């Protein structure tokens, strides 16, 4: 571990990664690595938590490949100096921002999209001229092993190193000094990583989780289409997606239509018995299975799904009603295929509800009224807003 850090740091000091030719060659090599080994990644992810091949291709491999293409397309522009406006005192000078790499980056990945969450930060690190230590999540261990086998076969062996292992390995790494840390994972572990980074005053990106609400109102002309989109976002990766709609806020009338549509759509997605479907992931491990089933059994009533099977870490796509805001399921990120519905009487009530919690990572507004969208945009704060205006579609 320490040897890898020293080698990567020395490579950076020797300026190995700074030139554009090196960066482009490494980006192309990483593209080749993902492209040529699609089957290996598909198998690893299938073994980790039965991720369907189509989801691996779309949400993992293509994601990384597109990121690489985008960086290659813009790399010259990103590396150019950025000329800035000048005050009278320096009017005769040339003033510009010179772009330089940080140095040695530590990338700590999460397990839920273990290829793209580990490799996309690497793409950025390479394009910006950094060396990197890559620490995939031990929870998706087949994918971690695949990355550890493949990366050294394609990328420069001095500049980029994959280190596998559990929390202890990450903690050992975090004792070392890095020039940048990119962490994806839970808020809880994010705090530990932030503390470790602060000791060395290391700049850091924290890509964390949280509860992402979805508000839907009765102006939506075709609730079935809205429900299909909602369920796609909720059920891809069996709900183990940081930006999955975590819960729904709507009126009792909209709730009734959503439930009717959901029963039909879930059959359409996964057949009569979702457990037999090759298109539904499993919960990643026993610990998360037990955590989610505890949430499922701690309040609310399952009106769709509700079945579980511990032998297979299976949880059926489930909709819960009669959920109280104080129920445990409303007090932590669900990260599973369970969708609680909370009834609200108005959009103002929905906004108040959202503002009482932590800022959402994503906030989804399904409505046909621009005014409603504007109200949510102006009165709430979240990592991103995804607004669906339906009038243009129907
Ligand atoms: P996690 O926090 O358990 O683990 C993330 C990483 O931290 C892993 O590599 C793990 O080895 C390491 N780690 C675990 N325990 C540690 C410890 N005690 N000390 C040091 N390192 C430790 O997260 P996870 O379960 O892998 O991922 C799920 C979480 O990630 C969810 O909250 C999800 O919302 C979030 N997430 C966020 C994004 C985003 O882009 N914002 C994307 C995906 C996932």
TrEMBL record:
Residue intervals of the Aldehyde dehydrogenase domain: 3-384
The keyword DNA-binding appears for this protein: no
Family designation: Belongs to the aldehyde dehydrogenase family.
Protein name in UniProt: Aldehyde dehydrogenase domain-containing protein
Gene3D superfamilies: Aldehyde Dehydrogenase, Chain A, domain 1, Aldehyde Dehydrogenase, Chain A, domain 2
Coiled-coil boundaries: none
Keywords from the named record: NAD, Oxidoreductase
UniProt-listed GO biological process terms: aldehyde metabolic process
GO molecular function (one): aldehyde dehydrogenase (NAD+) activity
